[in-house]
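Worked example

This section walks through a single chain of length 102. The input is the sequence exactly as stored; nothing has been trimmed or padded.
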Amino acid sequence: SGTVTHVALLSISGSGENPLTKRSTNRIMEQLGQSLRTNLRRGDVISQCSASQYIIMLPKANYENSCMVCRRVITAFHRAHPHVSAKINFMVQPLTPNICVP
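Given that input, the structure is written out below as tokens.
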């Protein structure tokens, strides 16, 4: 459609100097995946792209709204799992369409 879509990368890490164990990482990623499925719109696309990262495609959302969505998901995750000590960081980038002209 020629509109800009934003892509967000959410990454989990241990808090402070305490790295996450593999078991903790798997559990937290499962919980974060559930928070993403619960708190995103129907047309948003989620994929786990590594052991500690999710990538989200947010069509029809501008940069500010995409950041707001990420903050909302992270807040909802911490509210649902207050004892999880992992840090969740996010980065948002535009995914612009390549228009090929023959």
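What to look for: The chain has a mean pLDDT of 89.
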